[in-house]
Amino acid sequence: MTQKKPRIEINKNDRSLSVEKVDAILNGAMQEFLTHGYTATTMDKVTAAAGVSKTTVYSYFQDKEGLFVALIERLAQEKCLIIQEPEFLQGEPRIVLQRIATNIFAQVEKEPEFLGLVRLIIGESGRFPLLAQTFVSNLDKPALELVSQYFAEHKELQLSEPEVAARIFLGSLVHFVIFQHLLHGQDVLPLERDRLIDNLINLITLNLPKNREADQYSGTRQKSARRKRSASGKFKMDYGCEPKHLRSVRLTDTAWEKLAEIAEQNNLTRSEMIEIFARQGFASNQHIAGDKGQVTGA
Asked: Which residues form the HTH tetR-type domain (predicted)?
């Protein structure tokens, strides 16, 4: 049985110097692992890359596996520290989820070394499953637990399985990173990241009470695809030469939501549906048809 190398105790006077040495060793290890892979990297190569003695390397890290685990743990601390701050999870769910997703993508884009390490771990996971499990335990697990807890605490989301919802949310983001950046899928199945984020957030917050104050005017913001513009860019009149003026309409919340549902089914805005109702009325045996959305009998 081989005897393990003793670790050197760090006293207070040598603490700052020791931290610098540890950083130098870990930076050298990162460089060697990314360049040569886990198997081909040796402690001698790490020693040379770090610019320290072999005794120093072994005094902090007993073997290559311990060095790699320490590298993952440092990476996890750097990546997860920000989302563990109370301020990071403050705000209404849509804002928090947007913040988490944006932060994940920002880290990936700013630090290509992180992607390189993920690629290395996936490639070596068959021969060294414990290294992959260390990565999952230190990065994926804390993030999932944090988001799961956030979902569980926010009852207004009405998520029956907070843990599953957290896996769906974070898993989709991780899959996007792997698919687009590691597997070079952006040219095969391109997808804008903002589109993914927006739809994920809509999925998670589907049961949130609607912001009625903002929603009541959405019909005026949405432009029907069938409406045409003139050469000057102005919308053409839908009903001949009749002038149009902005009018206010007060409806109950139920009526307004029903109006939005009918309008969406017929590819119209709410204001256009009101125009049709006011002109012709709407009975249960009628439906919307025609180029200008006329109500016709069944």
From this structure: 19-79
pLDDT at position 32: 92
The band of 109, judged by pLDDT with boundaries at 50, 70 and 90, is confident
All residues at 6 or more sequence positions from 241 whose CB lies less than 8 Å from its CB, including other chains: none
Above 70 in pLDDT, residue 9? no
pTM of the model: 0.61
Sort 11 into a burial class: Cβ within 10 Å, 0-12 / 13-18 / 19+.
exposed
To the nearest 10°, report the CA torsion of 253, 255, 257, 263.
-150
Asked whether the predicted pLDDT for residue 57 surpasses 70, the reply is yes
Residue 131 and residue 68 in contact, taking contact as beta carbons nearer than 8 Å: yes
In DSSP terms, 235 is beta-bridged to: 229
How far apart, in whole angstroms, are the C-alpha atoms of residue 60 and residue 71? 12
Q: How far is it, in rounded angstroms, from Cα 227 to Cα 266? A: 13
